[in-house]
UniProtKB/TrEMBL annotation:
Gene3D superfamilies: Ribonuclease H-like superfamily/Ribonuclease H. This is Tc1-like transposase DDE domain-containing protein. Coiled coil: none annotated. One of its GO terms (molecular function) is nucleic acid binding. It comes from Panaeolus cyanescens. Residues 38-141 form the Tc1-like transposase DDE domain. PANTHER family: TRANSPOSASE.
């Protein structure tokens, strides 16, 4: 019986994923024939623990040991605003991203480059900070209604 089975790595799919909402989102995006209107915002960070492995190989009966630092070190964060053609705004700084830093980045670097409706469509992932009223209001004020898209597998919000 075991000849019919092989061990495989699991593929992870969010249990909350709603394929119907994903399909609706894709259909709503199909109306944009000019992809240059999209401005993508995201955030990322790196420190000494970022590249640490959690798995490795060793001989049977021997522990797998990797000597590593237990100190996080200095954390650097990056805030980019991207179009399909170029980076329109970029901020790299020491420390973590907060609502205040994200809002400041939007006000100083991103908002001046956004075009009012029908010019720019801002796309962000479903990070909790992106749902903040101040952040959403700033983008809607700069771009107009229906120009802020928070894409997620769970819900769809188009203001």
């Amino acid at each position: 019986m075991s000849a019919n089975y092989t061990q495989k790595s699991l593929s992870k799919v969010a249990a909350e994923c709603d394929q119907e909402l994903r399909d609706l989102w894709e259909m709503s995006m199909a109306k944009y024939d000019d992809l240059s209107v999209f401005v993508f915002l995201d955030e990322s960070a790196v420190d000494n623990k970022t590249v640490q492995r959690s798995q490795g190989w060793s001989t049977a009966g021997s522990p797998c040991v990797w000597h590593m630092t237990f100190l996080r070190g200095t954390r650097y964060s990056i805030l980019p605003a991207l179009t399909i053609d170029r980076i329109i705004a970029l901020d790299i700084f020491e420390g973590s991203i907060t609502k205040e830093k994200f809002l400041s980045f939007l006000r100083e670097y991103v908002a001046p480059q956004l075009n009012p409706y029908p010019g720019s469509v801002v796309v962000m992932d479903n990070c909790a900070i992106h749902h903040d009223e101040d952040i959403q209001r700033l983008i809607v004020d700069e771009c107009g209604e229906k120009r802020l898209i928070l894409k997620t597998c769970i819900s769809l919000l188009i203001k």
